[in-house]
Amino acid sequence: MSVNYGSKRVVTGAHYGIRDWLVQRVTATLMALFTVALLAQVILSSGPIGYEVWAGIFAAQWMKFLTFGVILALHWHAWVGVRDIWMDYVKPAAIRLTLHVLTLVWLVGCAGWAYSVLWKL
Amino acid sequence: MTELSKKRPEFRNINAFKDLTTYRMTAAAWVSILHRVSGLLMCLLLPLVVWLFDMSLTSELSYERFTAAFDSGIGFVPGLLVKLVLLVLIWGYLHHFIAGVRHLYMDMTHSVSKEFGKSSASVTLVLSLGLTVVLGAKLFGLY
């Protein structure tokens, strides 16, 4: 069933990208805050930054918790962004679908790898 | 219709090589396209970032491999190339970060005037390129 909103917009029931729009902003905010928090920990650490200090930052359970959230946010953000690029420039459906699938495989693989790095520490 | 509006070129099916080269790119246009370019580049380089994350965290031994990557390289890739790729990553992150904050700020404050678009785009370009030079100099051991 279609409903008119205003004089031009016909709403037919599909989603209009508001979710992706919001996801992109929420994940961006999370990553920006994480960047500042990580930088602060590096800058406020005492002595030269070697393995001990660096690994120490990520070894804390709460930091793993946060970092994992940010890893997921980063990959979700990358999916929305790269998908936008393919949708804008690649018109043939077969090529576009292939690129979408390759992007997903690429991102899921990287996310899994990053997750394992974090939790073997 | 006035004389001026009649003379404006009209682009229908835009040809990337014939039409795009005649565009006068404003600062905001540069920020916009570079936001895409940097995002795609970072997505492509993601395995390298995760590898660096892996090496830097797993053990003292892998940490040494991590620091050595910038001098003696990774496998057949020379250290200089690793540094150059990292410089691209640094620029990409800085540009994407600053342009992203600009987006968020515009969304929150509804700053959609032509003047703000122009000035904030210039600030984005100057900041991201300036910080890239500063961090790049550190990366290449200039200070």
Automatic annotation (TrEMBL), chain A:
It is found in: Cell inner membrane. GO terms for molecular function: electron transfer activity; heme binding; metal ion binding. Keywords: Cell inner membrane, Cell membrane, Electron transport, Heme, Iron, Membrane, Metal-binding, Transmembrane, Transmembrane helix, Transport, Tricarboxylic acid cycle. GO terms for biological process: cytochrome complex assembly; tricarboxylic acid cycle. It is a multi-pass membrane protein. InterPro entries: SQR/QFR_C/D (IPR034804), Succ_DH_anchor (IPR014312), SuccDH_FuR_B_TM-su (IPR000701). The heme is bound between the two transmembrane subunits. A ubiquinone binds at Y89. Membrane-anchoring subunit of succinate dehydrogenase (SDH). This is Succinate dehydrogenase hydrophobic membrane anchor subunit. It comes from Malikia spinosa. The gene is sdhD.
UniProtKB/TrEMBL annotation, chain B:
One of its GO terms (biological process) is tricarboxylic acid cycle. The chain crosses the membrane at residues 33-53, 73-99, 120-140. GO terms for molecular function: electron transfer activity; metal ion binding. Heme binds at H96. It holds the Pfam family Sdh_cyt. The keyword Transmembrane helix applies. GO terms for cellular component: membrane. Its main location: membrane. Keywords: Heme, Iron, Membrane, Metal-binding, Transmembrane, Transmembrane helix. The heme is bound between the two transmembrane subunits. Gene3D superfamilies: Fumarate reductase/succinate dehydrogenase, transmembrane subunit. Its cofactor is heme. InterPro entries: SQR/QFR_C/D (IPR034804), Succ_DH_cytb556 (IPR014314), SuccDH_FuR_B_TM-su (IPR000701). The keyword Metal-binding applies. Coiled coil: none annotated. It is found in: Membrane. Membrane-anchoring subunit of succinate dehydrogenase (SDH). Part of an enzyme complex containing four subunits: a flavoprotein, an iron-sulfur protein, plus two membrane-anchoring proteins, SdhC and SdhD. The complex can form homotrimers. Belongs to the cytochrome b560 family. This is Succinate dehydrogenase cytochrome b556 subunit. It comes from Malikia spinosa. The lineage of its organism: Bacteria, Pseudomonadati, Pseudomonadota, Betaproteobacteria, Burkholderiales. The gene is sdhC.
